[in-house]
Amino acid sequence: MPGAAAPEAYADDLAALIGELKLRDVRLVAQSMGGWTGMPFALAHPERTAALVLAGTPGGVATPQIAADGARVPQRIAERGFRGMALGKRFLERYQKFRSGLDEAARRQFDRAFGA
User: Fold this and answer.
1) Per-residue pLDDT at 1 exceeds 60
2) pTM
3) 1, 7, 34, 59: which has the fewest Cβ within 10 Å?
4) Those residues with Cβ within 8 angstroms of residue 56's Cβ, 6 or more apart along the chain or in another chain
């Protein structure tokens, strides 16, 4: 339905695209908001979905734990910043340790590549 902004509409759009491209047996990788498209599509079209990978998304599934985690997001952003939220605390610690072991030229190249 034009103008709809709901997961079901996203899945319908994906189904229309896959149909137009005449794809069969699709393998979907859905990250973040993409999970809100991938999960409903896979559930509605299991015969057309060979695989579904969800990364960093609940895929539209609501549980008390997901709601509780979501409620803590503002506090985590305040404590860790956006980069800390995106990458995770242990990753950032390892990243800083790795980066500190680089010589200055390598550190500049690393920073350019990874936006540090």
Assistant:
1) no
2) 0.57
3) 1
4) 31, 32, 35
